[in-house]
Amino acid sequence: MHPRKGAALGPTGPGWARADRSEGMNTLRGVWMRKLWSSAGAGLVALAAAGAARADDLLGQPTPGGLGLQPSGSILKQQAITFHNWILMPIITAIALLILALLAICIVRFNSRANPTPARWSHNTTVEMLWTGLPVLILTFIAIFSFKLLFAYNAMPKPDLTVKATGYQWYWGYAYPDQKIDEFTSNYLDEAAAKAAGEPYLLGVNNPLVVPVGKTVRVLVTGADVIHDFGVPAFGLKMDAVPGRVNATWFRADKIGTYYGQCDQLCGVNHAYMPIEIKVVSQPDFDAWVARKAPPPAPAPPTPAAPAAPAAAAPQHVAQNSSTAALR
Fold it and tell me: What angle do CA 304, 294, 284 make, to 5 degrees?
C-alpha cells in the first residue's frame, strides 16, 4: 500500500506530539528572551548615545532633535542634571527592565499551553515583604539626594543683585531696585524681527534681562493679573508669579551667553507669547548697560539770589545840618 497523500512521515502518537509542542515552546521561549535582551541592550545603547549627544547641545535654548535636559548654565542646574542622570535614570531603567522581564516570563512560561494546571496558592509572605520593603528603600535613597537639592535651592547666598520680574498678560516687566532702574517691559519679537535680530522665534525679546556673570542674582517674582511662571531651564529656574504675593528664587550664571525661557503656567490665550531672555555679560558690560538704562540724575535746584542789602542810614551830623538848612 502506498502512504496516504498528505500523511505525516515518521513516528507519531500522543507522546511525540507533546514532545513537538514542548520543543516548540522552548524555541518560542528562546526567541522571546533573545528579543527581551536585545531590546534592553538597544535601550542602554540609546541612553549612552543620548549622553554623548549632549556635547552638541545648544547652550541656553532647545536643541532640535536633542535628548535629555538642556546644558547647565548655573551650579543649581548642574546639580539637578547630576541627580537626574546618575540617580533617577539608573533606578528607573532598572525597574523598567525588571518589570519587562517579569512580564515576559509570565507570558512565556505561565500561559495556558506551557502551564495548563496553574498553582492554587494566592499569597507568599516573602514576596509580599520584598515588594513592600524594596520600594520603601528605593524611595528613601532617592529622598536623600532630592532633599539635598531642594535645600540647595532654598539656601540663597547673599545676593549681589536683585531683579523684580512681574508677569502680565502677556509680557514680562523687569525692574532693578538696587540700580534705581524703573520697570521696563519685555515683549516677544515677531517672526520677521526675530529673524532679522538672529534670535529664535518665540524666545527672543525686545528688552532682555541683563545680569553679570558669576554674581548671585535674586529674582523677586510676582504677577499682576493671573498666575504666571518664571521658568529658565538652563538655570533650573521655575517659580510661580502669583498676584498679591512675591516669591523669591536665585541663580548664579557660570558662563557668558544668552539664555531663554518661557512662562511655564497656562495664563490665557497668548500664553505661548511670553518668552524670557536673559543676557549674561561681564561686569564692565553690565555697568555700561546700567549707565545707559538708569535715569539721568535730576538737575540741581537753582541757587536762590542773595537778598538786597538795605540802604545805609545817614550819619547823625548830616541829618542835623540838613534840618538847620531847612529852617533857614
Answer: 125
Q: How far lies 104's CA from each of 40, 107, 112, in Å?
A: 13, 5, 14
| Residue-wise DSSP of 249-309 | EEEEB-S-EEEEEEE-S--STTGGG-EEEEEEE-HHHHHHHHHHHSPPPPPPPPPPPPPPP
Q: Whole-angstrom Cα distance, residue 44 to residue 26? A: 27
Residue where the block lists cell 535636559: 69
Whether residues 175 and 106 share a domain: the answer is no
Q: Are 149 and 166 members of one domain?
A: no
Query: pLDDT tens digits for 247-299?
Result: 999 999 999 999 999 999 999 999 999 999 999 999 999 999 999 987 777 67
Do 236 and 176 belong together in one domain? yes
Give percent of the chain with pLDDT exceeding 90.
64
**Domain of 217, in residue numbers:** 161-293
How many angstroms separate the CA atoms of 22 and 115, rounded?
A: 11
d(CA 252, CA 260): 15
CATH of the domain at 180: 2.60.40.420
